[in-house]
């Protein structure tokens, strides 16, 4: 009986640690992506400035060749596309986290009896297992 209580406390503690680990990892991932987005936005500002300089130079010199100007447009579009992809990565991280934390919460709130130690999370990658497994199938981390 005391061993059972200890196991439930241990399981609850492990889930808490895993939750913190997942949230920290997600926060670091999103921080790196946001830094990348900031650098792209700064690059776009510089390209737009350089584009303005080139357009003015072409105007003054009556240069009809638009290849240089079009190259600036291509760089700007590419940077905006990269920002869109980075934002999609952030959305994917948020969705992954919602799945990890939302599924367990839904199950708890559903009224279906849930054995406390029936749900296992890998403390390295956050993979969820309904049954006891010795190693994580995603990253190979030893669970037991």
**Beta-strand content:** under 5%
Please give the largest β-sheet.
2 strands, antiparallel
> Would you tell me the structural class of the helices and strands?
mainly alpha
**Strand numbers in spatial order across the main sheet:** 1-2
Supply Rg.
25 Å
Helical coverage, percent range: over 70%
Question: Averaged pLDDT, please?
Answer: 83
- Basic shape: rod-shaped
- Total DSSP helices: 2
Give the CA-CA distance, first to last residue: 21 Å
Order of helices and strands: HHEE
Number of strands: 2
What would your notes on this structure say?
Helix content is 71%, strand content 3%. A two-stranded antiparallel sheet has the order 1-2. Helix 1 runs antiparallel to helix 2 (67-109). The chain has helices at 2-60, 67-109; strands at residues 120-121, 128-129. The protein is rod-shaped, with a radius of gyration of 25 Å. With 144 residues, it is mainly alpha-helical. The chain has two helices and two strands.
């Amino acid at each position: 009986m005391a061993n059972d209580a200890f196991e439930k406390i241990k399981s609850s503690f492990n889930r808490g640690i895993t939750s913190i680990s997942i949230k920290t990892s997600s926060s670091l991932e999103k921080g790196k992506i946001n830094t990348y987005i900031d650098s792209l936005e700064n690059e776009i500002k510089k390209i737009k400035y350089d584009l303005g300089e080139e357009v003015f130079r072409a105007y003054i010199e009556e240069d009809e060749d638009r290849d240089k100007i079009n190259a600036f447009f291509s760089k700007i579009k590419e940077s905006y596309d990269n920002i869109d992809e980075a934002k999609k990565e952030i959305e994917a991280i948020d969705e992954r986290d919602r799945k990890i934390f939302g599924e367990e919460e839904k199950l708890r709130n559903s009224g279906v009896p849930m054995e406390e130690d029936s749900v296992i999370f890998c403390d390295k990658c956050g993979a969820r297992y309904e049954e006891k497994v010795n190693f994580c199938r995603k990253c190979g981390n030893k669970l037991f």
